[in-house]
Amino acid sequence: MDQRWRPSVTVAAVIERDGRFLMIEEETSEGLRINNPAGHLDPGETPAEGCAREALEETAWHFRPTQLLGVYISRFQRATTGEDITYLRFAFTGELGAEEKGRPLDHGIVRTLWMTPEELRATAARHRSPLVLRCLEDYLAGVRYPLEAIHSDPSIRGPGWERDSEGGDGEGR
C-alpha cells in the first residue's frame, strides 16, 4: 500500500545576544541534546507565530521573528525505534524581548544556554540535528530573507477566522 510522504513541519529561532546564541538542552530518546528553540508548527498558526510561541515555551524569553533565515529539510532515523522522519524546518532570526523569570519550560527542556559559535561548533555531536549548526553558519554568513517570502493563506486559520485589525494575514502584510 502506498503511503503519502508527510514531513514534520518545524520552526526554529536563531537568537543572538552579545555574540552568544540562546540554545536549549533537552531530553530526547537519544539522550541530552542541544537545539535551537524549536518545535512543531501547530494548526492555525503561521510559521513566524509558531516560532515565537516555541521560543517562549522552551526558553521563557519573548521573541519576535523579523527575518527568515532559511527553509531546511533533513531526514532522521530514531536509533531506538527505527522510525524514519523527515523534518522541514523554517528558521527565523529576530528581536529578543523580555524574559519571563520563573516561567516553566516545556516538558523535556532541561535548561537554556547562551553559547558562542565556537562552543556550538565544538558540541556538534550533541546537537539534536545537523540543522542546528547549519542555521548558525547561515546566520553568521548574513543569510536573511524577508518574512514576506512565506505566504500564509488565511485558510490556515480554519472556518470563521477573521482577518486581523490591519487586514493582514499575520505575516506583516
TrEMBL record:
Residues 4-137 form the Nudix hydrolase domain. One of its GO terms (molecular function) is ribonucleoside triphosphate phosphatase activity. The keyword Magnesium applies. Its cofactor is Mg(2+). Pfam families: NUDIX (PF00293). Its EC number is 3.6.1.-. InterPro entries: NUDIX_hydrolase-like_dom_sf (IPR015797), NUDIX_hydrolase_dom (IPR000086), NudJ (IPR033713). Keywords: Hydrolase, Magnesium. Monomer. Belongs to the Nudix hydrolase family. NudJ subfamily. This is Phosphatase NudJ. It comes from Ramlibacter ginsenosidimutans.
